[in-house]
Amino acid sequence: MGKKFGFGGVGGGVEYFVDCFGGWCCRIGDRIVRLRVSNMRFDVLRVKNYLLNKGFVYSVRKYNVGNGFVFVDGVGLCYRVNLGLVVNKGVVDYDKLGKFVKYSGFDRIVDWVWWIKRFRVVNGYLYKVIVVKSC
Length: 135
Description:
Blueprint: E1 4-7, E2 15-18, E3 24-28, E4 31-34, E5 37-39, H1 45-54, E6 56-61, E7 68-72, E8 76-88, E9 91-92, H2 94-98, H3 109-118, E10 124-134
Parallel strand pairs: 5-7
Antiparallel strand pairs: 1-2, 2-3, 3-4, 6-10, 7-8, 8-9, 8-10
């Protein structure tokens, strides 16, 4: 077995650890499951800090992928939940996005939208990213 990262995370009572090949695994009772883990970047420092300090963050991305485990450099193993389209053909749905701004790392929706436009998001999907096990 590899280095253990402790107990907790999604579902509680589950142990997450890195195996000897560098892959993420979880142990549920006697069963060990290797996880499929993608990488996810947070280039805006205040968003990454919010994730580190609060344990979750809402983020808008260009890609539409399903729920799953992601590794965030400097944070650790996280779980990403797709909440749907919030920017359609460059038009921001302020009603949907406004509900999550206080959990995004931004103080105002205009600041969040400025970054969405800076990253040239034409079709944007809202994700909740939850820290499962920090490094």
